[in-house]
Design brief:
GO terms for molecular function: ribosomal large subunit binding. Keywords: Cytoplasm, Repressor, Translation regulation. Interacts with ribosomal protein uL14 (rplN). The chain is built from five helices and six strands, in the order ααββαβββααβ. It is α+β, with helices and mostly antiparallel strands. It has one domain: Beta Polymerase, domain 2, CATH 3.30.460.10.
Length: 139
């Protein structure tokens, strides 16, 4: 288990004090909207609250290059921090750039390249969760 630096610990403490309350579905929808702004495709929300203790929602997103995946992740982080003063609890995969995971505690975001999304097929693995198709806000 890794230790937090003093800067990380302070940031988490400050975030805890200033976080704006938001329900997990609204958070998931805001995440989807931020992803859409960066031309993400096949955005799906899975309500896993009844079938998992990990989170209430998974947001599954496809991007088409490592650069786009990183841009989507940054867009999500900026929107959620600006609107709710929240940062992800942890982020992984940004360096590799083929599958980025952002953990917002009650919402976990999976940003995939198409090949990885097809290979891991989270929608099938969590097939018993309620699937919510994200309706584009730009149309």
């Amino acid at each position: 288990m890794s230790k937090l630096s003093s800067e990380q610990a302070i940031a988490i403490e400050q975030q805890t004090q200033t976080t704006i309350a938001v329900n997990s579905k609204e958070l998931a929808l805001q995440i989807a909207g931020a992803a859409e702004e960066k031309k993400a495709q096949d955005i799906v929300l899975l309500d896993v609250s009844d079938v998992s203790y990990l989170a209430d929602y998974f947001v599954i997103i496809t991007g088409f290059s490592s650069t786009q995946l990183k841009a989507i992740a940054e867009s999500i982080e900026e929107r959620i921090e600006d609107n709710y003063h929240r940062l992800p609890v942890r982020v992984s995969g940004k360096r590799e750039g083929n599958w980025i995971v952002q953990d917002y505690a009650d919402v976990i975001v999976h940003i995939f390249l198409p090949e990885e999304r097809e290979y891991y097929n989270l929608e099938a693995f969590w097939g018993h969760a309620e699937r919510i198709e994200y309706i584009s806000q730009s149309s």
